[in-house]
Design goal:
The complex is a heterotetramer. By secondary structure, chain A is of the alpha/beta class. Chain A has 9 helices and 19 strands. Chain A folds into 2 domains: 220 residues, FAD/NAD(P)-binding domain (3-Layer(bba) Sandwich), CATH 3.50.50.60; 145 residues, D-Amino Acid Oxidase, Chain A, domain 2. The radius of gyration of chain A is 20 Å and the shape is globular. A 4-stranded antiparallel β-sheet of chain C has the order 3-4-5-6, with no helix packed on it. By secondary structure, chain D is of the alpha+beta class. In chain D, a hairpin with an 8-residue loop joins strand 42 and strand 43. In chain D, helix 12 packs across helix 13. The chains are: A alpha/beta, B alpha+beta, C mainly beta, D alpha+beta. At the A-C interface, helix 6, strand 13 and strand 16 of A face strand 3 and helix 1 of C. Strand 17 of chain A pairs antiparallel with strand 31 of chain D, so a sheet runs across the interface. Bound molecules: flavin-adenine dinucleotide, nicotinamide-adenine-dinucleotide, flavin mononucleotide and zinc ion. Zinc ion binds next to loops of chain C.
C-alpha cells in the first residue's frame, strides 16, 4: 500500500494503518522533507467547534484523539488545551454561535457562550472601548487549544516508522499507473512503485495528483499566510478569534504571537502571499487588541490550501478503483489530523467509510448534500 | 403641511464636517464642491459615440480621461461609463437624457457623492498616504482620471485646472470616514478649510 | 500583486475581487438534456493548474469591469488581462 | 576631552575620534542608571562608551550577553526601550539612535540583570538541548499540562510587550519610481547617482539614519578624501535632484509580486515621542519598475567555546565603534579572523590606541602586507591558530585560549574581535522564490536567480572591494535607468582602491570543549547540531525546526550559514546541495501597528452614515452596526427600563398609530435598457417582465448552486427602467453579481446598472396612520388613495419641487410606504416626517422593532437567508418559475435540495406562556434525548411580540409545514433555556394581509 504525502494526514494515515489495522507494508512517499507542507506551517489551532451534522462528530473524534495522542505515540506534541474563544459582535452572530454551541453539545463536545463581561474577565486587553465592531461576547471551547505542529508530524512519523512503515522523502510522485480503471502503481522521481492501493493525502497538490488519474476535482489551491511575532513573555491566553475581521492569535511555546487571517484569495502554488492580506490581518489585530502595535512581526509565510467547493473535506474512494482521496481541508485540516488519519486508514483498509467521515463524499456536490458551514456556496476563496 | 417643511433645507455631503479655518501657510487646502449636478452615464449601444457627437460636437476620448464640453465635465470611469458634472443649479441628468436618448442610461447622482477639492503644496504627499496610484505628473497627466480606492473608500480622482489641485468624489455616506482619514493625514502639513 | 486593467492601467490587488477559473463565464446550456451533469461540472469542478491560469477578476474598486486575467499560479506573474465582455463588442468611443 | 562618565570614548582630536557630535551630549538611562552619550550615537555605542558590557540574558540558558554587532543583525543586545504603553521589547541596542531622555531596560532576567535566578538553567543545561521540549516533559501524563507547560510558557519569550493600547499612530503610503535603490553604501550611492543623473525617478532607501553604509565605518578614501565625505557629497547631490527621493531610516523589508516592495520608514523612533500629527512609522508600498539591490553583506562569526561572552564582537563592528562612534569596545584585544578583512580591525584598534594581543588566523599563510602591517603595530600574528575558548563572565571577557598547531596559550584580553568572512544579504532576492547560489571563492551564498526587475550590486552580490562596489553600483544604476528609457553621459568613476578580501572557510573550531554557540539568541550550540544529526533531523529545514536555529528575532543572520555548514560536514554533503533555508519577509521585524496604519480601533473600517444619522443621534437613538453602516437600533425614552420596553412601545405605536424608520441603507440599483426585463427574469426566480409600470414586486435571487442569495423588491418605473432593492448586507455583492451576469454571461443584452443607493434617502412610514401622515407631507394636491397608489404600487411624486419616489411596500405588515428623497434633503425630510409623525402620536422606530414586526409577519431575513437555505426551505418555492431558466434553477433541482425532509420554515411559540425564546436553540422531538441523532432543526429568529403578547420565533424544522401544532423541544444549553415549544405557522399577524392593503 502506498500513501502519498508525508504531511500530517499522510503520516497519521500510515500510523493508523499500521496501528489499527495491522497493515505495516506501507510506503509513505513525500516529495520534499516530511512535515514540510501545511502541517509544518499552520497556526496550530485545534478545536471541534463545528456546526453541521456531517462535521461535528468527526472533529470531536479528532479532539478526543488529540487528548490521548502523546501517550499514544509517546512523543510530546505539546497539546495545550488553553481554550479557543470565538468573539461575536452582533446579536445575529451571537445566535449563530448559540446554534453552533448547541450543536456541539448535542455531539457531546464542550461549549460555552460568554457575554461581554465574561470575555473581559478572560482577556481584559481586548478593545472594549473604542471599537468599530464592539465585542459582545464569545463562544468558548475550553478543550480547544493548540498543538506543536512540527512535533505532531515527527510523533506520527516516529510511531509509523517504529511500526514498519517506510517513509521515503525527496521522492515526488509524477504519475499513476492505471490499468482497466484500477490503480496498480506509481511513477516517482526515484523510480516506479507497484501498489495494490494508493491513498492520496497531498493537500495543496490534490488537483495535480488527481489529474494523473484523469480526475477533475472540486478543489482549488489557494495560499494562506501566517505570521509570527518576536518572542514575548506571556501575553495572550489561549486562542482568540476576531468575529468582525480576519484575525486569530495564540502564543507559541517560544513566546511568539502566532497569528493569521483570510486566504489571499486567488489560485496559487507559490506558497507565499502578498501585502493586502498582511495589512488586513494586522488591521484586524489592531482593531481587536491595540496593545500589539509595537510588537514586531518577525516572519510571514504561506501554505497551499486544498480549498473545496463547500469548505468541507473529502475522504472517499474515487472512480478509479483502489485509489482513495483525502483532501479539501481548506485552512482547517490541522485539527483534523488524527481523525483524518484514523478514518482514511479505515477506508483504505476496509473499503468502507468510517461512520464519522461518511458525509465526506466526493459525489456530494452532484447530489447537493454539501456541508457548507459558512453558507458561502461553490466559491472556494470565500470559505 | 407645516411651514417648517415648506423650506426643505438641502445639506451638502460634508455638512457639519468641514469647518472653515486653519493656518494661512497650510500645506493642504480643502474646499467642498457643493454646487454640482452629477450624473452617471452608461453607454447602451454603439450609437452612443454618434449621439455624443451630435449633441456636443465632440468625440469622446477612450480610457480614464476627462473632457469638458458645454460646461459639462465628463470623466471616463469605465469602458462604457462616464461620470458627468456641471456646476450650478441646472439639472444635468435630464439634459443628458434628452440629448442621448436611448443610447445611454443616465442616472441623477447629484446627491450621491461628496466632492472635495484638495490643493496645496503638499497635496501629493497627502494623497500618497491613501491613494494607491502614481500621481506624479509624468504618470498622471492633466486630463487623467482614476477610479480607485483610498483608505478602504472608493473614490474618483482627477486634476482640477489649477496646479497641485485634485478633485475627489466619494459616496456621500463615506464622507465622514474619508474626512477622518484626510484630516489625520494632513495634520503634519497643516490643513486649511475654505468655503467654496 | 498588481493587475493591468485594460481600462484603468496597472492597479493594486486591493481594488479587485477574485471569482475563479475563466470557465465560469461559459455557462452551460440549461436546455441541454444533460444539463444537470454539465452544471455540476461548471459550478464545481476545476482544472486548478499549476502554471498559466485564465481567471476572472472584478475591478470593483475601479472601472467595474470583469476581467479575464492570465496569470501563472506558480510565480504570480501576470501575462495579460482583457475585458471579459467580448461578444457584440462595440466600444462606446469609436 | 577626558570624560569620566564615558571612559571608553576616544579623545577628540586623536587619530581616531569618530563622528558623533560632541557638542550635543544626551542623557539616557539603562536599568534605571543614568548615562550620557552624544548625538550620532546608537544606544549600543553609548553603552560601550560608558563601559557597560552586560546588556541582557540569553533566551534559554540565561547566560550573560553583551553587544555583538553594530547593526540590525544583533543577536544579543536586545533591550526594552521606553516604558508604559510605549514599551518596545526586543529592541536592538545597535540600531537605536540615542535621544535625550532615552530609557532602556534589560530583559529576560529576574530578579536583576546581574543576579539572574534562571541562570540555573546553565547548570541544568543538559536538559535544555535542542529539541528538548519534545522528549522531556512527557511523563507522567498529567505533568505536561499541569507543571511543565506552565513553566515553559512562563520562561518563554524575551521581552515584555506593553499591555496597553499603542498610543502612537502609524501611516501607510504609496510610492512609485523607475528605479528603487536599496542601501546607500558605495554601491547604492553609485547606483542612485547613475540612475538619478539620467533623469529617471529614483527612490533610495537606507535603513540607517545616515547614508554611506560601510563608508561610515572604515578609514578608506575615495577621491583621496575620507570615504564618508564622499557619502555626504553624494547624498547632497541626490537630494538636490528633483527626480530623486532619498529616504533614510527606511528599511526595505520585502519583495512582493509585480515588483512591489514593502518598506518601513521610522519617522519618529529617534525622538522621545512623535510630534503632533507625525506618525511613529510609515509603511510604504513601493512599486518600482527596476530595483538595484545594494544591501551589502553581513559579517559572519565563528563558532568556538565561550563565543557568546560579553566582549566577543564582530570584527567589522569593532571598526564601526571606533571609526564612526569614537568608542573603544576594549583595551586589550585578540582578533580571530579567517579572512583579510579582519586584519583591518587590528590595524584600526592599534590606531585608536588599543593594545592588540594577537591576530589569530587559521590560514597557514596570508598576504605579507597584512603581517607586515601587524608587526608594525606591535601585533603578534598567530597563523594556523584557532581560539578554542574564551573565559569570562558577566563582567566580560578575561582571556582567549588559542591553539596553534595543537599548542595552547592563554591571551589575556577584554575584547575578542571575530570574522569568519562575509555573507551577502540575499534576502530580497529570495522573497519571490529565487534560490541563492553557493560560491566557493567566498565560502558563502550569493544571489542566484533574481526576481523580475532586480539587479544586485556591491557586497550584496559578493563584490566585496570598495572600487568594485562603486563600479558595479554605477553600472547597475545606469542599466536600470536605461531599462526605463533614461540615459546619462557616463560620469568619471570615483577613485578608490579594492581592499584585500581573501577568505578561507571555517565554521566551527572543533577543538572547543566549552559551550560553543551557533545561534546566540536562541542558544543553539554546536552540540545541538550534533544531536540533531544523531536524531535524524538532518535536512536544514528539520535542523532549524528541531533546534530553533535561525528562528529568533535576528532570523539567523549571524548563525544560519555556520549551522548549515556544520550539518553539511556531519552529513558529508556539499553546501551547494544543502542550500539555504527560505528567508521570508520582513527582512527585519516590523511593528504590527505599521501594517495597520490608520485602520485600527474605531477606524478599522470606514463607517457609512445615512443622511438621518445626526437626527437619530440627537433623538437618543442607540446605534447598531449593520454591515458597513450604522443604524438606529431603538429610540429609548426616559423612564424606559430596558431595550425591550422601548422596542415594545415602538412596535405598538407602529401597529396602532404610525412610525418612521430610516431604511436608506438598503441597496438600490438602477437598471435600464431594452432588455432590462429579460435580464431580471434571468437573475430572479420569479418573473419581472410581467410587472406593470408603476408596480413593485418581491423577488428572490439564487446563486448558481441553487441556494438563496438575496431578496428584495424591485419596482418598474418605465418599460425599460427598474429600480432593484437589495438587503443592506448584500448590496455590493449583488451589484458585482449582476455585472457578472451581464458582462460575462449575457453581454448581448441591452441592460445597464448603476448603484443609486447613495442618491436617495429612504424612509419607511408604517402604521394605520401612514397614509394620513404622507398626505400631510405632500399636501392636498397629491392623491394617495388606495386607487391612486395601491399596495405594491410605486410613483414618482414631486414634493415642494423635489423629486421623490413613493413605494407602497410593507415589511412590517402594516399599511406602509417607503419614501425616497434625494439625499441632500434626507435630513430635512426626516425632520419634517418626524414632526408630523409626532403630532399624530407616532414615533421613530429602529432595526429592533423592524425585526420584531418582520418576525410577526413571517418574513425571512439575514438569519434565514444564511447561504444554507433553498427557496423551498423558506416557503418561497412557489415563486420559482417553472417556465424558464434563471440563475440557480438547474442546481436547485439536485436531489438533496429537493428532499422532502429538509428543515423548512415554521413559527414557534413557547408552551409555557411568558417564557422567553432564544435563537440558536435546536429543535428535538418532544421528549427525545439531547443527542445529535435527534437534531431536527433550529430556531433562526425570535422576538417578543407585543401583538401576540408573548415570545414568538421562526425555525427551520424537518418536515416543518406538516407539523403545525406539534409540541417539540427547544434545546438551548448555551443559555440554559431548554423548553417545550409548539410549531405553528410562521405568520403570526394578519395572515390575510388585510392591514397592508388597507
Ligand atoms: C498558514 C496556515 C495556517 C493554518 N492554520 C490551521 C489551524 O490553525 N488549524 C487547523 O486545523 N488547520 C490549519 N491549517 C490547515 C492545515 O495545516 C492543513 O489543512 C493540513 O495540514 C493539511 O493536511 P496535511 O498536513 O496532510 O498537508 P501537508 O502537510 O501539506 O501534506 C501534503 C504533503 O504532500 C506532499 N506532496 C504533494 N505532492 C506530492 C507528490 N506529487 N509526491 C509526493 N508528495 C507530494 C507535500 O510535499 C506535503 O508534504 C493551516 C494551514 C496553513 C497553510
Ligand atoms: N573587504 C571585505 O572583505 C569587505 C567585505 C564586505 C564589505 N566590504 C566593504 O563594504 C562595502 C560594500 O558596499 P555596499 O554598498 O555593497 O554595502 P554597504 O554595506 O556599504 O551598504 C549597504 C547599506 O545598505 C543598507 N541596507 C541594508 N539592508 C537594507 C534594507 N533592507 N533597506 C534599506 N537599507 C538597507 C545598510 O544599512 C547599509 O547602509 C564596501 O565599502 C566594501 O569595501 C568589504
Ligand atoms: C506555530 C508556528 C510558530 C513559528 N514560530 C516561529 C518562530 O518563532 N521563529 C521563526 O523564525 N519562525 C517561526 N515559524 C515559521 C517558520 O520559520 C516557517 O516560516 C514556517 O514553518 C514555514 O516554512 P517556510 O517559511 O520555510 O516556508 C513558526 C511557524 C509556525 C507554524
Ligand atoms: Zn479597471
Amino acid at each position: 500500500m502506498v500513501v502519498v504525502g508525508a504531511g500530517g494526514h499522510g503520516l497519521a494515515t500510515a500510523y493508523y494503518l499500521a496501528k489499527n489495522h495491522g497493515i505495516s507494508n506501507v510506503a509513505l512517499i513525500e516529495k520534499g522533507w516530511l512535515g514540510g507542507g501545511n502541517v509544518g506551517r499552520n497556526t496550530t489551532i485545534i478545536r471541534s467547534n463545528y456546526l453541521l451534522p456531517g462535521n461535528e462528530a468527526f472533529y470531536e473524534q479528532s479532539l478526543k484523539l488529540w487528548e490521548g495522542l502523546e501517550q499514544d505515540f509517546n512523543y510530546n506534541a505539546m497539546v495545550s488545551q488553553r481554550g479557543v474563544l470565538n468573539l461575536y459582535h452582533s446579536d445575529a452572530q451571537r445566535d449563530a454561535y448559540a446554534r453552533r454551541g448547541n450543536a456541539m453539545r448535542l455531539h457531546g463536545a464542550d461549549a460555552e457562550l460568554l457575554d461581554r463581561n465574561a470575555v473581559k474577565a478572560m482577556a481584559p486587553f481586548l478593545n472594549f472601548d473604542d471599537a468599530r465592531f464592539p465585542i459582545q461576547g464569545g463562544l468558548l471551547q475550553r478543550r480547544g487549544g493548540t498543538a506543536r505542529h512540527d512535533a505532531v508530524a515527527w510523533g506520527f512519523a516516529r510511531g509509523a516508522s517504529d511500526r514498519g512503515v517506510d517513509i521515503i522523502e525527496n521522492c515526488e510522485v509524477v504519475g499513476l499507473a492505471i490499468e482497466d480503471g484500477r490503480v496498480v502503481g506509481l511513477k516517482t522521481t526515484r523510480g516506479d512503485i507497484k501498489a495494490k492501493k494508493v491513498g492520496l493525502a497531498v493537500a495543496g497538490a490534490t488537483s495535480q495528483l488527481g489529474a494523473m488519474a484523469g480526475l477533475r476535482l472540486p478543489i482549488e489551491s489557494h495560499v494562506l499566510q501566517a505570521f509570527v511575532s518576536e518572542g514575548l513573555k506571556p501575553l495572550v491566553p489561549g486562542v482568540i478569534t476576531f468575529g468582525a475581521g480576519h484575525f486569530y492569535v495564540s502564543q507559541s511555546d517560544k513566546g511568539g504571537l502566532v497569528f493569521g487571517g483570510d486566504i489571499d484569495g486567488y489560485n496559487s502554488y507559490a506558497r507565499r502571499g502578498n501585502l493586502p492580506v498582511v495589512e488586513d490581518v494586522c488591521e484586524s489585530g489592531m482593531a481587536l487588541m491595540p496593545m500589539i502595535g509595537r510588537v514586531r512581526l518577525l516572519r510571514s509565510w504561506g501554505g497551499l490550501m486544498d480549498m473545496s467547493m463547500d469548505g468541507s473535506p473529502i475522504i472517499d474512494r474515487t472512480p478509479v478503483e483502489n485509489l482513495f482521496l483525502n483532501c479539501g481541508w481548506c485552512y482547517g485540516g490541522f485539527k483534523a489530523t488524527p481523525a483524518s488519519g484514523w478514518c482514511f486508514a479505515h477506508l483504505i483498509a476496509t473499503g468502507q467509510s468510517h461512520p464519522n467521515a461518511a458525509a465526506y463524499r466526493l459525489d456530494r456536490f452532484a447530489s447537493g448534500a454539501v456541508i457548507d458551514e459558512k453558507g458561502a456556496g461553490a466559491q472556494p476563496n470565500l470559505h | 403641511m407645516a411651514d417648517a417643511a415648506l423650506q426643505l433645507k438641502a445639506r451638502s455631503a460634508f455638512d457639519g464636517l468641514l469647518v472653515p479655518g486653519g493656518p494661512k501657510d497650510a500645506g493642504i487646502v480643502v474646499t467642498e464642491r457643493k454646487d454640482l449636478q452629477i450624473a452617471t452615464v452608461i453607454a447602451r449601444s454603439s450609437g452612443f459615440a454618434e449621439a455624443i457627437k451630435t449633441a456636443y460636437g465632440i468625440a469622446l476620448p477612450s480610457g480614464p480621461k476627462r473632457i469638458v464640453v458645454h460646461e459639462i465635465t465628463l470623466l471616463g470611469t469605465g469602458p462604457r461609463a462616464w461620470f458627468a458634472l456641471r456646476a450650478g443649479e441646472r439639472p444635468l441628468a435630464s439634459d443628458l437624457e434628452q440629448s442621448l436618448g436611448e443610447h445611454a442610461a443616465v442616472a441623477d447622482q447629484s446627491d450621491g457623492y461628496g466632492v472635495l477639492r484638495v490643493s496645496g503644496a503638499k497635496v501629493r504627499a497627502l494623497l500618497a498616504k491613501g491613494v494607491p496610484i502614481d500621481l506624479h505628473p509624468r504618470a498622471f497627466a492633466a486630463d487623467d482620471v482614476a477610479v480607485t480606492v483610498c483608505s478602504h473608500i472608493g473614490i474618483m480622482l482627477w486634476r482640477s485646472d489649477a496646479d497641485s489641485s485634485f478633485d475627489i468624489a466619494m459616496f456621500r455616506s463615506l464622507c465622514g470616514s474619508f474626512w477622518s482619514w484626510l484630516s489625520e493625514s494632513a495634520e503634519e502639513f497643516g490643513l486649511r478649510v475654505e468655503a467654496e | 500583486m498588481r493587475i493591468p486593467c485594460p481600462f484603468c492601467g496597472v492597479r493594486d490587488l486591493t481594488e479587485f475581487t477574485y471569482l475563479g477559473d475563466a470557465s465560469l463565464a461559459q455557462r452551460p446550456d440549461p436546455a441541454s438534456p444533460d444539463a444537470a451533469a454539465r452544471f455540476h461540472e461548471y459550478v464545481h469542478l476545476r482544472d486548478n493548474p499549476a502554471g498559466l491560469h485564465d481567471e476572472l477578476w472584478y475591478h470593483g474598486g475601479g472601472c467595474r469591469s470583469w476581467l479575464t486575467v492570465t496569470r501563472n499560479t506558480r510565480t504570480h506573474v501576470i501575462e495579460g488581462a482583457k475585458l471579459t465582455r467580448t461578444s457584440k463588442s462595440w466600444t462606446a468611443t469609436s | 576631552m577626558s570624560d569620566m562618565a564615558q571612559p571608553n570614548r576616544l579623545p577628540a582630536g586623536g587619530a581616531i575620534e569618530g563622528r558623533v557630535d560632541r557638542n550635543r551630549p544626551l542623557a539616557f538611562t539603562f536599568d534605571g542608571k543614568s548615562y550620557s552619550g552624544y548625538a550620532g550615537d546608537t544606544l549600543a555605542s553609548a553603552l560601550i562608551a560608558a563601559g557597560v558590557k552586560l546588556i541582557g540574558r540569553s533566551f534559554k540558558y540565561h547566560r550573560p550577553r553583551g553587544i555583538f554587532s553594530a547593526g540590525p543583525e544583533e543577536p544579543n543586545a536586545l533591550i526594552e526601550l521606553r516604558g508604559g504603553a510605549r514599551r518596545e521589547p526586543n529592541t536592538r541596542a545597535t540600531t537605536i539612535e540615542l535621544y535625550d531622555g532615552l530609557e532602556a531596560a534589560s530583559q529576560n532576567r529576574w530578579p536583576s540583570l546581574a543576579f539572574d535566578i534562571l541562570a540555573i538553567n546553565q547548570i541544568a543545561s543538559p536538559l535544555f538541548v535542542g529539541g528538548f521540549y519534545y522528549k522531556t516533559f512527557m511523563w507522567p501524563a498529567s505533568f505536561w499540562e499541569k507543571v511543565y507547560e506552565p513553566l515553559i510558557r512562563r520562561a518563554a519569550g524575551l521581552g515584555r510587550a506593553s499591555e496597553s493600547p499603542d498610543p502612537d499612530h502609524y501611516e501607510k503610503a504609496y510610492a512609485f519610481c523607475d528605479v528603487l535603490v536599496v542601501g546607500s553604501g558605495p554601491a547604492g550611492l553609485a547606483a542612485a547617482l547613475a540612475a538619478g543623473r539620467s533623469g529617471a525617478r529614483v527612490i533610495l532607501c537606507e535603513d540607517d539614519a545616515q547614508l554611506g553604509g560601510r563608508l561610515l565605518s572604515e578609514r578608506q578614501t575615495i577621491d583621496d578624501a575620507p570615504a564618508h565625505l564622499f557619502a555626504a557629497a553624494a547624498g547632497g547631490e541626490l537630494r538636490s535632484l528633483p527626480n530623486v527621493c532619498v529616504m533614510s531610516r527606511t528599511q526595505v523589508f520585502g519583495a512582493y509580486d509585480s515588483e512591489v516592495y514593502g518598506a518601513l520608514e521610522r519617522v519618529a523612533d529617534h525622538v522621545t515621542a512623535p510630534a503632533a500629527g507625525v506618525p511613529r512609522q510609515r509603511f510604504w508600498h513601493i512599486a518600482a519598475k527596476r530595483c538595484v539591490n545594494a544591501m551589502g553583506a553581513t559579517e559572519r562569526p565563528i563558532v568556538f567555546g565561550g563565543n557568546d561572552r560579553p566582549g566577543v564582537m564582530l570584527a567589522s563592528a569593532v571598526r564601526t565603534y571606533l571609526n564612526r562612534f569614537g568608542v573603544l569596545p576594549g583595551r586589550k584585544a585578540v582578533v580571530f579572523t579567517t579572512n583579510d578583512d579582519g586584519w583591518r580591525t587590528a590595524a584600526d584598534l592599534v590606531a585608536a590606541g588599543a593594545q592588540v594581543e594577537a591576530v589569530v588566523d587559521p590560514r597557514a599563510s596570508v598576504d605579507e602586507n597584512l603581517t607586515k602591517a601587524a608587526a608594525a603595530g606591535g601585533v603578534r600574528v598567530l597563523l594556523g591558530g584557532y581560539i578554542v575558548n574564551v573565559t569570562g563572565g558577566a563582567r566580560g571577557v578575561t582571556s582567549a585560549i588559542v591553539s596553534v598547531a595543537g599548542k595552547r596559550q592563554i591571551l589575556t584580553a577584554d575584547l575578542v574581535a571575530v570574522s569568519g568572512g562575509w555573507n551577502p544579504q540575499v534576502a530580497l532576492t529570495t522573497h519571490r522564490g529565487g534560490k541563492p547560489r553557493w560560491s566557493d571563492a567566498l565560502s558563502t551564498f550569493v544571489p542566484g536567480d533574481l526576481p523580475d526587475g532586480m539587479t544586485v550590486a556591491g557586497a550584496a552580490n559578493g563584490d566585496l572591494g570598495l572600487a568594485e562596489s562603486l563600479r558595479k553600483g554605477s553600472e547597475a544604476g545606469a542599466a536600470a535607468a536605461a531599462a526605463c528609457g533614461f540615459s546619462a553621459a557616463p560620469a568619471p568613476q570615483p577613485r578608490a582602491e579594492d581592499e584585500p578580501t581573501a577568505v578561507a572557510p571555517l565554521w566551527h573550531v572543533a577543538e572547543s570543549r566549552h559551550k560553543a554557540f551557533v545561534d546566540l539568541q536562541n542558544d543553539v550550540t554546536a552540540d545541538d547540531i550534533t544531536l540533531a544529526h544523531a536524531e535524524g533531523f538532518r535536512s536544514i529545514e528539520h535542523l532549524k525546526r528541531y533546534t530553533t536555529l535561525g528562528m529568533a528575532t535576528d532570523q539567523g543572520k549571524t548563525s544560519n550559514l555556520n549551522g548549515h555548514a556544520m550539518m553539511a560536514a556531519l552529513t558529508g554533503q556539499a553546501m551547494s546541495d544543502v542550500g539555504t533555508i527560505l528567508s521570508r519577509p520582513p527582512h527585519q521585524p516590523v511593528a504590527i501597528g505599521a501594517f495597520a496604519g490608520h485602520h485600527r480601533d474605531r477606524h478599522f473600517r470606514p463607517t457609512r452614515h445615512t443622511a438621518g444619522h445626526a437626527w437619530a443621534l440627537e433623538n437618543g437613538a442607540v446605534m447598531v452596526e449593520a454591515g458597513p453602516w450604522l443604524r438606529p437600533q431603538y429610540f429609548p425614552r426616559s423612564g424606559e427600563k430596558d431595550w425591550l420596553t422601548t422596542v415594545v412601545r415602538e412596535v405598538r405605536t407602529v401597529r396602532s398609530v404610525v412610525g418612521v424608520c430610516d431604511v436608506s441603507t438598503l441597496g438600490r440599483i438602477d437598471i435600464q435598457g431594452r432588455d432590462a426585463a429579460a435580464f431580471l427574469d434571468r437573475v430572479y426566480v420569479n418573473t419581472f417582465s410581467t410587472l406593470p409600470v408603476g408596480k413593485a414586486r418581491y423577488g428572490v435571487m439564487l446563486r448558481e448552486d441553487g441556494f438563496v442569495m438575496d431578496d428584495g423588491t424591485t419596482s418598474r418605473f418605465a418599460e425599460d427602467h427598474y429600480v432593484m432593492s437589495t438587503t443592506t448586507a448584500n448590496a455590493a455583492k449583488i451589484m458585482q453579481h449582476l455585472e457578472f451576469c451581464h458582462q460575462a454571461l449575457w453581454p448581448e443584452l441591452d441592460v445597464s446598472m448603476v448603484s443609486v443607493t447613495e442618491q436617495w434617502s429612504q424612509y419607511a412610514v408604517a402604521g394605520p396612520k401612514a397614509r394620513e401622515l404622507l398626505m400631510q407631507l405632500y399636501g392636498p394636491d397629491v392623491d394617495l388613495s388606495n386607487d391612486a397608489l395601491p399596495y405594491m404600487g410605486c410613483r414618482e411624486i414631486p414634493l415642494r419641487g423635489i423629486p421623490t419616489r413613493l413605494f407602497r411596500i410593507s415589511f412590517s405588515g402594516e399599511l406602509a410606504y417607503e419614501l425616497a428623497v434625494p439625499a441632500r434633503y434626507g435630513a430635512a425630510v426626516l425632520e419634517a416626517l418626524m414632526a408630523l409623525c409626532g403630532a399624530l402620536g407616532g414615533c421613530p422606530y429602529g432595526t429592533e422593532a423592524q425585526s420584531v414586526m418582520r418576525i410577526e409577519k413571517g418574513h425571512v431575513a439575514g438569519n434565514e437567508l444564511n447561504g444554507q437555505t433553498v427557496a423551498r426551505d423558506l416557503g418561497l418555492g412557489r415563486m420559482m418559475s417553472t417556465k424558464r431558466d434563471y440563475i440557480g434553477r438547474v442546481m436547485a433541482g439536485r436531489p438533496a435540495l429537493m428532499a422532502p425532509d429538509r428543515p423548512t420554515l415554521v413559527g414557534i411559540r413557547p408552551v409555557e406562556k411568558g417564557r422567553r425564546l432564544t435563537a440558536g436553540a435546536h429543535i428535538l422531538p418532544g421528549g427525545a434525548a439531547a443527542v445529535a441523532a435527534n437534531d431536527q432543526g433550529y430556531v433562526t429568529s425570535v422576538a417578543y411580540s407585543p401583538t401576540c403578547e408573548g415570545w414568538i420565533g421562526l425555525a427551520l424544522v424537518v418536515n416543518g409545514p406538516a407539523r403545525h401544532g406539534e409540541r417539540v423541544h427547544a434545546f438551548d444549553a448555551m443559555r440554559n433555556n431548554d423548553q417545550d415549544v409548539v410549531i405553528c405557522s410562521p405568520v403570526f399577524v394578519d395572515p390575510e394581509g388585510v392591514r397592508l392593503r388597507g
